[in-house]
Amino acid sequence: MRRLLPLVALALFGADLRAAELKAGAFAQDVTPEKFPISVNGNMADKKAAAANDPLHARCLVLDDGTTKLAIVVVDSCMVPRELLDAAKALAEKKTGIPAKNVLISATHTHTAPTVAGVFQSDPDEEYVRFLTQKIADGIEKAHKNLAPAKIAWGVAEEPNQVFNRRWRMKPGFKYLDPFGNGTDKVRMNPPRMSPDLIEPAGPTDPRVTVLSVQTADGKPLALYANYSLHYVGDLPPLSADYFGAFANSIGTKLKGGKEFVGALSNGTSGDVNNVNFKAEAMKTLPGERCRLVADAVATAATKAVDGAKYEARGQLRCVTKEIELGVRKPTTEEIKRAEGILEKAKGRELKGLEEVYARETVLIAKYPDTVKVPIQVMTVNETALVAIPCETFAEIGLRIKKDISPFKTTCVVSLANGYFGYLPTPEHHALGGYETWRARSSFLEVDASVKIEKAIGELMKELAVK
Fold it and tell me: What string of DSSP letters covers 59-127?
């Protein structure tokens, strides 16, 4: 039955699928902070950046089919909380009239951007939070002002050589304690390279590079939105847009885009995927070289994805959203008491080691509500769907959505979108343990969260397919 769904969906769309002329506008809004030093997300200990190595952007694309307008934004940030993004969407709606529910904003997950979400020992810089909120809205407004007749094409290519699952099954007898004193995990995140204890990766990777290419009415490159399931690279000093920024530069060069061309790379389902081949020796590179090499490889795949594609000047845009309520994994009274004792011993100094860092996370998670409302969103641009999940989603979840759940011709799954609710492992991965499952502000949703999110996505896709 699953194979028939795309044809059913297209039949139900009817003859009006491409009845409207498309317009598009793009703008790359600089979101580099103006004041330093500033806290940087992405580490167990807080770090401060004294300058920007390269600029940070909110890369904005607005699409209009005459009836519906969509805004798609990719922000150079590690993770962005829902409250900030909701505020930016509300501002953008006032400026442009684009309904907030029709706006998809995702973070790239560069680990070298200012802190706007409190995780581990990095706390938000409130001045930058206000600054980023305004700048995202400004970028959407400028992209909206640039709306003009346009043509679009979707494509998919593969770049399998840059993605590796970072969770490994280890040989019996290998000990790896979690930070809560609860015994050993069954898998290890980022194990010792070329260790004799390595057995196999605990999950798959998704090599696909999914691309939305936008041209002006006369065929000039206007924008390219891509999606790839790689966590980040991280060989540039903060502040940096990491390989996501390098991709934007590379794709602009490859497509011969002009000064106003906007290239953007969103993060796919990479919660358990990085750029390290643990079975091989590390390649010796200069600072920033690996970022450029990975970016160029992904940009090469992106150009192949739309090479020879038929661009369409007409189409239909739609968007549906849904909030689902999910449980929070809260610590027990005994766990809180243990954590408080650890913090008392460390009082007056920076926390050191996983046990101390996670003790603080335990105390903070204890103050969380028992449930949280998580936004799920699905957009369609002609026969292609963009799925937005506000988590660091595991690769196999994205693969399952693309292969088994989606009725659409092409599906793009965007992580860290419309908020931040930590890692999203499957229940099976929760049973294996490992860093991504350790309870903290970076991983707190209930064990069955992925099952419920997949169900909600399926329901939204069915709703779009029958409209």
Answer: EEEEEE-SS-EEEEEEESSS---HHHHHHHHHHHHHHH---GGGEEEEE---SSSB--S-BTTB---HH
